[in-house]
Amino acid sequence: MENARLARYEQALQFAERQVAAETERDPDYFPIYTTGGKWRHEGELWTDWTGGFFAGMMWQFHRRTKDPVWRQRAEHYSKLLEHRKLDRNVHDLGFIFLNTYLPWFQLTHDPALNEVLITAGRTLAGRFVESGQYLRSFVSVDSLFIDIMMNVPIIFYAAKQTGDQQLWQIAVAHCRTTRDRLVRPDGSTAHEGLFHVETGEFLRESTHQGRSADSAWARGLAWSLYGFSKVYALSEMEEFLSVSERNAAYWISHLPEDRVPYWDFHADLSEPLPWGPQKESSAAAIAASGLLDLAQQTKVPEKAALYRRTALEMLDALCDPEYLAIDTPGWEGILKHGVYHTKKGLGVDESVMWGEYFFVEALTKVVVDGK
Length: 372
Description:
- The protein is mainly α.
- Helix content is 52%, strand content 7%.
- The chain is globular.
């Protein structure tokens, strides 16, 4: 069974390579975000430009698995197109952009100039720290904290470790603790956003932009938290953050539907029409699968390790089925179908989304290459 699974994963990765290669030829130097009708190029709203690192990051993942110099050439080219964003103060997504591109590049070459890009990006992100509330502000406004930032704060930890800068370290730890205390609930579910009084730092309330409601459990947000706290634990070795990731994992696993791919919100009313009701969210499954594979190796409890890995593989198995994998869908330009970007804005609903593509490839590569 394991050999059959690995062969299926390898087939999915080869399909992913074909899809990404086709996009680079069809639309050179373009960084897609989400499809419309299965097509990457369209006039739809971006909301925010945060996904370039996923497209280039897949190329690095392909090179790591195949050692094909063509993929390295492409990966370097597309990564260079992102370098100017190391000074981008308008987004909270610099971890997404640089940890998936410049970090594997630096790990391959040990070129200090590449490491300096990572450090600069970490310092830039740290500039979003709101002292009064002890959090990194979202791109929306100064009073806003997003759960998504848990996947970006690792670049501040990285910069702190590379430079010995204790202030950077303190900012990163403070943000994680505020997120844990304000956005992660006792049952392990998460709020999408927290709002604060900017002057006093007082926490005001939970909110959301992409979930069903302020007090619901937006699936992708929970996946960001699960994986983000796992990444933070890997960098900090602080057990308090491992326990948060495990709490997120417990909620995730206990609330998954039978086919192991979540709906867009764990509180979705399945009696409602699409997209508000039974809309699947393949990208959330891909993110959580990759996070659970790491968490399986981090937990101190063997029974949990087995559960995390088994659940991750069950989700990947589901995503490799043609219901989700676009391998048998003529004309579809993405890799995974049934992803969601922004339900309320009607952006990328039941489509391919670039982060779903990346984390699917990343998770499969962890199994195929690393044996996770």
